[in-house]
Design brief:
Order of helices and strands: EHEHEHEHEHEEEEHEEH
Helix content: 40-55%
Number of helices: 7
Mean pLDDT: 94
Length: 218
């Protein structure tokens, strides 16, 4: 397959790209920093310099036409303020989804966050509240598009080694999950188009990833 990853230098996305390349897929990684592009190239990923906060969908259409799937893994990142949560975490996803529609790239996996299915708690900080608002709005936009979308909401992310086992359901109790395992879940979701039009939450667990994905279809 040929997969487009937005935010391809992020911690989850970098592992996702390497896993896809390692099994023989072609990966186009969208980043805005040339230094990051060079690092992706060393991973075997084809880099493309794109600023999701400034690009127009037509620019992306030309880049992603012919791809089999798109993954939105971009984020404003720690240290960014509330405005960039909107322009990147929401606006970037909307931009890529619109471009995917126009380019005929039907399969779309969006990495979101737990907490989007309920109102923000009253004591939430301004920036984290803006982050949840942005993810919630990005999900709402994706749901109304003519795409074969899947939304994945990880729990609290860690940099621990992959376990290969998760709990993946429509709703789970909050918990930790490794970024490496999240990347592997995305790969398994890409391989299972029947997970389209589902929003799933994932934390660490006891079920092998492929088995956990298959179980969501029952």
């Amino acid at each position: 397959m040929r997969i487009v990853i937005a935010g391809a230098h992020g911690k989850i996305a970098r592992q996702l790209g390497r896993e896809l390349v390692g099994r023989g897929d072609s990966v186009l990684g969208l980043v805005r920093n040339q230094d990051h592009a060079d690092e992706l190239g060393a991973d075997g990923i084809e880099p493309a310099i794109v600023d999701l906060e400034a690009a127009e969908s037509g620019e992306l259409v030309g880049l992603i036409t012919g791809a089999d799937a798109a993954v939105f893994a971009a984020g404003a990142g720690p240290g960014s303020g509330a405005p960039r949560k909107d322009t990147v975490d929401r606006g970037g996803s909307v931009l890529l989804a619109e471009a995917a529609e126009r380019a005929g790239v039907r399969r779309f996996v969006q990495i979101s966050a737990m907490g989007t299915t309920r109102p923000n708690p009253p004591d939430v900080g301004e920036v984290f509240g803006a982050y949840l608002d942005a993810k919630r709005a990005a999900e709402a936009d994706l749901r109304q598009r003519d795409l074969d979308w899947t939304i994945l909401r990880p729990g609290r992310l860690t940099d621990d080694d992959a376990t290969g086992r998760v709990r993946l359901e429509v709703s789970v109790e909050r918990g930790e999950v490794t970024r490496a395992d999240v990347a592997s879940v995305v790969v398994a979701l890409l391989d299972q188009p029947r997970t389209s039009h589902r929003a799933l939450e994932v934390v660490g667990g006891d079920v092998p990833i492929d088995e956990a994905v298959r179980a969501t279809l029952s």
